Amino acid sequence: MNIHEYQAKELLAKYGIGVPAGHAAMSVEEAVAAAEKLPGPLYVVKAQIHAGGRGKGKFKELGQDAKGGVRLAHSVDDVRKDAGEMLGNTLVTIQTGDEGKQVNRLYVTDGVDIAKEFYLSMLVDRASSHIAMIVSTEGGMDIEDVAHNTPEKITTITIDPATGFMPHHGRSVAYALKLEGALAKQAQKLAAQLYEAFTALDAEMLEINPLVETEGGELLVLDTKMSFDGNALYRHPDVEAMRDETEEDPAEVEAGKHDLAYIKLDGNIGCMVNGAGLAMATMDIIKLNGAFPANFLDVGGGATTEKVTEAFKIILSDDAVEGILVNIFGGIMRCDTIAEGIVAAAKEVELDVPLVVRLEGTNVEAGKDILANSGLPIIPADDLGDAARKIVAQVKEAA
């Protein structure tokens, strides 16, 4: 689960981490009120969307010459103007794709006199089963170019969760950032605080870009992104409450309500499968036969008729879907139960696209009989290869 920048800073501040003063705003009036609470005279007005590259982004409605999603305002009137231009408009960044994201929230912060910018991030390193702290002296909007062109300027420090954060990890961070004296001590303390926040909150990713040294010799988190392990959110109701469903795909949100794993893709053949590995294989074989999957959808091992019906509704909510391939291996889940669900779902949603079903496993013959006697134009398949060939052919024929 992702959260907004202002929410991430609120969480980090609870661990003693320095962040500039700031307030969230949902309207122009709230943005102005937020600025009036700050000392000024320099303010920063920041669009709050779940995507990076906001500073270099462009608003669809404002033209190419307009300023991006992070703006310096030199007066409260400037804050008012910027908020009016940003709220309700669509910000397109390198991470949003061409469709962009509508800006519904702003973050108005106090301006900071920056002496130097750094980069610091943390993530779970699956290869080593450690937590990786990644730092660079080259913070700012062009960190992707640094990673590509000068990777030697990026240092990775791994921390074993069994021993936790140790003093030498902090010293390594300060050394990699080329800090000395009081700033080095600040960096060591900051690294320890970030590790504590990362582990205590069950975070998956924390990125600070930039981490800045101010003219007054203070390290501050100027911008940050955080994401969390969804499986651990039950331990953090305060974090879960920060979820902004308007930033997520509506179909994915609906799927989550029914315990379905769904991700929208760019193809035209909808997939309903039980098991993540089988779903990946199904998508691969669709591509092997010259078409593209429209989604990843795993109904899991305990699919009911109601669950299968909801899965069909979610697949068909995508206007790009021109055919559906159901690929089920009945291990724990019986094929006859799945077949009953498919028939009920096809009738309820008034299916109007080709449907190919491949069943295998427990009670497979009973399942096939249910499909064959349903009176519906369901196309059976003998195996996965046969299923992929049939659905691709049906979609091409319908086109």
TrEMBL record:
EC number(s) per entry: 6.2.1.5
Binding site for substrate: 274, 331-333
InterPro entries: ATP-grasp, ATP-grasp_succ-CoA_synth-type, ATP_grasp_subdomain_1, Succ-CoA_synthase_bsu_CS, SUCC_ACL_C, Succ_CoA_ligase-like_bsu, Succinyl-CoA_synth-like
GO molecular function annotation: ATP binding; magnesium ion binding; malate-CoA ligase activity; succinate-CoA ligase (ADP-forming) activity
Cofactor(s) needed for function: Mg(2+)
Binding site for ATP: 46, 53-55, 112, 117
Note on how the cofactor is bound: Binds 1 Mg(2+) ion per subunit.
SUPFAM superfamilies: Glutathione synthetase ATP-binding domain-like (SSF56059), Succinyl-CoA synthetase domains (SSF52210)
Residues annotated as binding Mg(2+): 209, 223
Gene Ontology terms describing biological process: succinyl-CoA metabolic process; tricarboxylic acid cycle
Residue stretches spanning the membrane: none
Reactions mediated catalytically: succinate + ATP + CoA = succinyl-CoA + ADP + phosphate; GTP + succinate + CoA = succinyl-CoA + GDP + phosphate; (S)-malate + ATP + CoA = (S)-malyl-CoA + ADP + phosphate
GO CC entries: cytosol; succinate-CoA ligase complex
Keywords in alphabetical order: ATP-binding, Ligase, Magnesium, Metal-binding, Nucleotide-binding, Tricarboxylic acid cycle
Pathway: One-carbon metabolism; formaldehyde assimilation via serine pathway; Carbohydrate metabolism; tricarboxylic acid cycle; succinate from succinyl-CoA (ligase route): step 1/1
Pfam families tied to this protein: ATP-grasp_2 (PF08442), Ligase_CoA (PF00549)
PANTHER family: SUCCINATE--COA LIGASE [GDP-FORMING] SUBUNIT BETA, MITOCHONDRIAL (PTHR11815:SF10), SUCCINYL-COA SYNTHETASE BETA CHAIN (PTHR11815)
Function statement: Succinyl-CoA synthetase functions in the citric acid cycle (TCA), coupling the hydrolysis of succinyl-CoA to the synthesis of either ATP or GTP and thus represents the only step of substrate-level phosphorylation in the TCA. The beta subunit provides nucleotide specificity of the enzyme and binds the substrate succinate, while the binding sites for coenzyme A and phosphate are found in the alpha subunit.
Family, as annotated: Belongs to the succinate/malate CoA ligase beta subunit family.
Subunit field text: Heterotetramer of two alpha and two beta subunits.
Protein name stated in the entry: Succinate--CoA ligase [ADP-forming] subunit beta
Organism in which the protein naturally occurs: Aurantiacibacter gangjinensis
